[in-house]
Amino acid sequence: MLAALPASQRRSLAAAAVLLAGAGAAEAAGAPEVLRFVLTGVALAAFAAVIGQAIEDVGARFGPGATGLLQSTLGNLPELFVGIFALRQGLLELVRAALVGSVLGNAVLVLGLVFVAGGLRHGAQEFDPHEPRLYGSLLLVAVAALLVPTLARHLDTPAAAHAGALSDLCAAVLLVIYACSIPFTLGLSAAAGGSAEGAGDGGPPPLPLSIAVLVLASGGAAVVSDWFVGAVTPAIHTLGISQAFTGLVIVAIASNAVENAVGVRFALRAKPAYALSTTLASPLQIALLLIPALVLLSNVLGPTPLTLVFPPLLVAALGVSAVVVIATIYDGEYTWIEGVALVGLYAMIAGAFWWG
Question: How do the domains of the chain map onto residue ranges?
Answer without folding.
Answer: 2-352
